[in-house]
């Protein structure tokens, strides 16, 4: 049966996940109308487009897989204490990355702090694309944006559509890239490992632009 399937051009794949709550028409509108309009505006304003997202990293996250002798399960030694750090990152269609690592919960206050740090890196308007997290749409964030509307503008992705955000790939990359052979023993070490990942990616703009070219993202960007 496998030979027949290959002849028909089929391959054995892990299915991609889509939320049943996703609005297909909203996704179509984003891809065919909203995104091209944002891209045109940013180009006319000589602005910068960035996609942002937040991620949590736990000390007890899944270690991953590795090779080992049959019948002898590999062992990774790590602390029994549980702790975590959070990060907010934004990637530019031009290969730039900006990030912030923090230990408190993600809320409107943290979002405003990240926005302030972000606009400080640019001398032109930023078009920031995010999901519909409640902190992104909070009253405090809206008020902050109103005071800085000449510097930054938020655009929201369709609901339940993480596959439309290339920064989600940064989050997955981060979790894959954290050391497997040595686990952080405390929150400070975990935060340092997280920052080390982001600093490394900042020096690799070709990797950042590659996030936008993933098959399920397929964004047309200006090289």
Compact overview of the structure:
This protein is α/β, with parallel strands linked by helices and 223 residues long.
Spatial strand arrangement across the major sheet: 3-2-1-4-5
> What general outline do the C-alpha atoms trace?
globular
Taking the sheet with the most strands, its summary is: 5 strands, mixed
Mean pLDDT: 88
* Proportion of residues in extended strands: 15-25%
The structural class is alpha/beta
Query: Roughly how many Å is the radius of gyration?
Result: 20 Å
Poorly predicted residue ranges: none
Supply the number of helical segments. Answer: 7
Total beta-strand segments: 5
Distance between the termini: 43 Å
In percent, how helical is the residue content? 25-40%
The ordered H/E elements are HHEEEHEHEHHH
Structure description:
This protein has a 5-stranded mixed sheet with strand order 3-2-1-4-5, sandwiched between helices. The chain contains 7 helices and 5 strands, in the order H-H-E-E-E-H-E-H-E-H-H-H. The chain is α/β, with parallel strands linked by helices and 223 residues long. Helix content is 37%, strand content 16%. The radius of gyration is 20 Å and the shape is globular. The longest helix is centred in the N-terminal third of the chain and has 21 residues.
């Amino acid at each position: 049966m496998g030979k027949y399937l290959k002849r028909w051009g089929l391959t054995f794949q892990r299915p991609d996940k889509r939320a049943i709550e996703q609005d297909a028409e909203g996704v179509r509108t984003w891809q065919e109308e909203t995104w091209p309009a944002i891209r045109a505006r940013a180009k006319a304003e000589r602005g910068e487009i960035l996609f942002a997202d937040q991620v949590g990293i736990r000390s007890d996250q899944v270690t991953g897989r590795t090779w080992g002798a049959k019948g002898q399960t590999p062992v990774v030694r790590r602390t029994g204490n549980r702790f975590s750090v959070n990060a907010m990152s934004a990637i530019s269609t031009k290969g730039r990355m900006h990030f912030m690592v923090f230990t408190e919960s993600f809320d409107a206050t943290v979002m405003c702090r990240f926005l302030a740090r972000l606009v400080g890196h640019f001398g032109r308007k930023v078009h920031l694309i995010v999901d519909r997290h409640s902190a992104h749409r909070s009253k405090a964030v809206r008020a902050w944006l109103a005071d800085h509307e000449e510097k930054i503008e938020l655009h929201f992705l369709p609901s339940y559509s993480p596959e439309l955000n290339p920064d989600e790939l940064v989050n997955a990359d981060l979790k894959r890239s954290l050391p497997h052979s040595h686990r952080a023993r405390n929150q400070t070490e975990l935060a340092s490992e997280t920052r080390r990942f982001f600093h490394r990616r900042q020096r690799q703009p070709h990797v950042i632009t590659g996030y936008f070219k993933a098959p399920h993202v397929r964004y047309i960007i200006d090289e």
